[in-house]
Amino acid sequence: IERSGTARGYDTLDVYLTGFGPFGDISDNPTMHLVPAVSPSNPRVRVQSRNILRVSIGAVQQYVHDIIAASCKDAPVQYNNNNHIVVDSGVPQRRTLRLLLSLGVNSSADRIYFEQAYYNKADFRIPDVDGNQPRNQPIDANYVLDTRFLSKVDGYAIVHELQQRGFAVGLSVDPGRYVCNYIYCYGGLTLATQNDFLSVFVHVPVFEVLSAPEQLIIINGIVDAIGEMYLNV
Fold it and tell me: What residues contact residue 165 under an 8 Å CB cut-off, 6+ apart?
């Protein structure tokens, strides 16, 4: 399926999947149950890791740096003296796209929301689980406070397709300014220095609003749609 913003050219999509644990009045975070069950239909879309993070700044920062370190070990690139990539003609060269896909709960949501934007602002309404409560602070001091960034993934096209199939999914440009926005912004800006790495955040409602099986269908649909955007046919 061709979409606006399509950038094919990859052979595989490696997904680094995260959810969050309890925080505030959320004692049973639905993402704790969704992350272990996500199962893309395309065999070339591979879930490389599944993690449930503590709802804290420190946990987010450590996780982002850990997945960068882990992904860099996959296939080191070698260069010759002319700065050209050394290719063994007997081994097909495969190109992998990596995706940091984070799930978070929005207890007031009536559907799943693909978050298209993130913001350079930490303004926590309650402390994280480590007791940190930044107020009106930039996440990255290199950018102006509350600068808006857009995900490179075309959420507009993905949401439209899933809505056409009757799914309870919407597009949002406001992920809040709590830890959900923090991982989206910190991860997105950090991964911007890495080649072939994307970041996406999805907010889910509680299961009383949308059941776990229904949510899984939509999340798998989002992952599959990203694969269709970027993987070679």
Answer: 221
Q: What is the pTM of this model?
A: 0.87
Spatial separation of the C-alpha atoms in residues 1 and 4, rounded to whole Å? 10
DSSP string of 23-52? BTTBSS-THHHHGGG---SSTTEEEEEEEE
Q: In the prediction, which pLDDT does 53 show?
A: 96
User: Which residues, at least 6 apart from 49, have a Cβ–Cβ distance to it below 8 Å?
Assistant: 16, 17, 67, 70
Q: State the DSSP code for 86.
A: P
Strand, coil or helix: what is 119? strand
Transcribe 133-187 into DSSP letters.
---SB-SSTTS-TT-EEE-SS-HHHHHHHHHHTT--EEEES---SSHHHHHHHHH
Instruction: Write out pLDDT tens, residues 83-141.
Output: 333 444 455 567 899 999 999 999 999 999 999 999 999 999 999 999 999 999 999 99
